[in-house]
Amino acid sequence: MAIMFQAGFWGTQAPVYMDIFLLMMVLLPLLMGIIIWQAIQQRYALHGFLQTITFLSVFVLLAYVEYTLYFEGGLSLYTQGESADAGMVFSFWLFHVFVAMVTMLLWFSTIWYARADRKRRALPGLYSKGHRRMGKIVAWSIFGLSLSVVLLYWMLFVA
Questions:
Q1: pLDDT-derived band of residue 107, with 50, 70 and 90 as boundaries?
Q2: Which residues, in sequence order, are CB contacts of 118 under 8 Å at separation 6+?
Q3: Cα separations (Å) of 96 from 1, 57, 83, 145, 153?
Q4: In whole angstroms, what separates CA 149 from the centre of its chain?
Q5: CB 21 within 8 A of CB 65
Q6: Is the separation of the CB atoms in 22 and 11 below 8 Å?
Q7: Each residue of 47-75: b (16+ CB within 10 Å) or e?
Q8: What pTM was computed for the model?
Q9: Contacts of 107 (CB under 8 A, 6+ apart)
Q10: Which of these, 100, 72, 107, 76, lies nearest to 89 by C-alpha position?
Q11: Where are the domains of the chain?
Q12: Is residue 84 pLDDT above 70, yes or no?
């Protein structure tokens, strides 16, 4: 586990786990586009599997990062001696946590209802339009989450 706290690979003061997190969150909208393309190509089983795996991966990594930032004192450690105001960074981190929670709840509920609708043979079919609409909301929410991660990383390690 000590390797996770070594210097990262982006050339900042960030530990390697933050650099991995940033890389995953920057690539997440592209990955979501690929996964959505699977549904457009009518590969529904692959689409559902990839959505579930991606959701679980993001959830675990997001929980780990938020835990280390708050409970392990990462926020106060990373804002010491920096030009960024610690209060502003903490306020933005709270906003980021709100965005993350909303995104994960929306994403989870979309997956949950899609699985239930698939079992009832209502997806694809009867509920496809609603699922597509919810998917667009989740996609924009994921984009917002990615943007908030990039801004938080910038506030903590670049500015």
A1: very high
A2: 44, 48
A3: 25, 18, 20, 7, 11
A4: 8
A5: yes
A6: no
A7: bbebbeebbeebeeebeebbebbeeeebb
A8: 0.85
A9: 55, 138, 141, 142
A10: 76
A11: 14-158
A12: no
